[in-house]
Amino acid sequence: MASTREKLLGQFFTPERVAAFLVRWAAPGDGDRVLDPSCGDGVFLRQLHSAVGVEFCPESAAQARAAAAHAQVVEADFFQWASTHGPEFDAIVGNPPFIRYQQFTGPTRKSAFALARRIGVEFNGLTSSWAPFLAVSASLVRPGGRMAFVVPAEIGHATYAAPLIEGLCRNFSSVTIVAIREKLFPDLSQDAWLLFVSGKGGRTETIGFTAVDRFCSRIDPDNPTSLVSLRDWRQAGQRLRKFLLPADLREAYHLVIERAGATQLANIADVTIGYVSGDNDFFHLSRSAARLFEIPDAFLRPTIRRGEQLATDYVDQRLVDRWLAANEQIYVLDLTSTTEVPRSVAAYLTSPRGEEARARYKCRVRDPWYVIPGVAQTPSAFITCMSGRESRLAINRAGAVCTNSVLSVSLMQRVSHRGLLRGWRHPLSRLCQELEGHPLGGGMLKLEPGEARRVHVPLRPFHPTKAEGLALAESIDLMRTWRHYGPDADRA
């Protein structure tokens, strides 16, 4: 129950040594007026002589009052509370609630987005709670004031983090992000970094960036190890992941891209996610089920339902036959082109199980409900969305399709399949996949369609020099450690 509540409220309490470090930096003076906008159990408030804490959860608010009797703890929704307050704090510190966009909905999100516009930040509907939380907090800082926050590592790669960083750079004279490889919250799959901003009312054209293996009190936010210009950050896709590499390895990476004549996948192929059936168990059939319900072969397509199926370079008929012999559900019902549904198929659609599928959201909002959008498009190749050691690309020789658990690749230019396979496996492309993708917990690498499109692929044979090869290998290993993929881990 406690774990469920934490997830719903986005509550993950900060280690005391981290809270003390942030407070020392943000509020060094006893006279500073300080706010913790999501004070939880009071770990930040305990470090302060006097402060205001806002907390939505009654149990946590009671804990904060007991832990920091000198603080003013307000039990309220932060966004509602902020709507009646202005820039009245010298410093704001804390750990914002992390609620994914699927649960961050309704009036709360609407209010949060409206308040974020105070500092000129516009978010879209795919934004998780912590980003507008920081933007609204920034609107409450007095001129010259500071903020220090624990933030999800998504600040380094999430699309919705970009408007937040842009807004902070327009409103503060210094913005620094400290990337920490070792988990601040060992029990969570989500990594956490640190954010430091100062000089409210100023602006900056650079992002201070420091990458460290583990948190320690010797980190100096005022002297970051590198300054990333907004121009370079934008050219990197408004992502900081590339800057986890030391400067010499980044330089080697860019030189190899140029020497190899590598092209981004987007220049030769359209990359999307596969179809969404609405009810996988109903629309996917095994060979025996298809025979039982007398579904004609003309309405069945072999399909890739999960990345684990892409264990070879080619999806061909021999592989499909192996799946069929194992009686796997690798047929998808494709009624895209039919104008008259055969009697046996109609019986399957009107069966009790069919009526159950028809009532599901994705099915009931389409007409006809049993025609799956996108299922008729045959990709040239498939790419795993989530991977362990490395992502895989497989050429489609079986006329197969794929679900949204796999990336669908449709070539727009005449490209050799052998060249595409070789290019995707090349160390340069492997490194690019690490830099353009992002961690997904458990050591997994996630590639969204937009991330896969940005991957550089050398389509002609290219042999790096020994020094270049060593630099690529070192960079790949380093990026794998940042997503917690260990060399001895049992990963596919």
Spell out the blueprint of helices and strands.
Elements: H1 2-9, H2 16-26, E1 34-36, E2 52-55, H3 58-67, E3 72-75, H4 78-82, E4 89-94, H5 106-116, H6 130-138, E5 141-152, H7 161-171, E6 172-180, E7 192-200, E8 206-212, E9 226-229, H8 230-235, H9 247-260, E10 263-264, E11 269-273, H10 280-283, E12 284-285, H11 287-292, E13 300-304, E14 314-315, H12 317-325, E15 331-333, H13 343-349, H14 352-358, H15 361-364, E16 381-384, E17 386-387, E18 393-396, E19 401-402, E20 406-411, H16 417-425, H17 427-436, E21 438-439, E22 445-446, H18 449-453, E23 456-457, H19 466-482
Parallel strand pairs: 1-2, 1-4, 2-3, 4-5, 6-8, 13-19, 14-18
Antiparallel strand pairs: 5-7, 6-7, 8-9, 10-23, 11-20, 12-15, 13-15, 16-18, 16-20, 17-22, 21-22
Helix pairs in contact: 5-6, 6-7, 9-19, 17-19
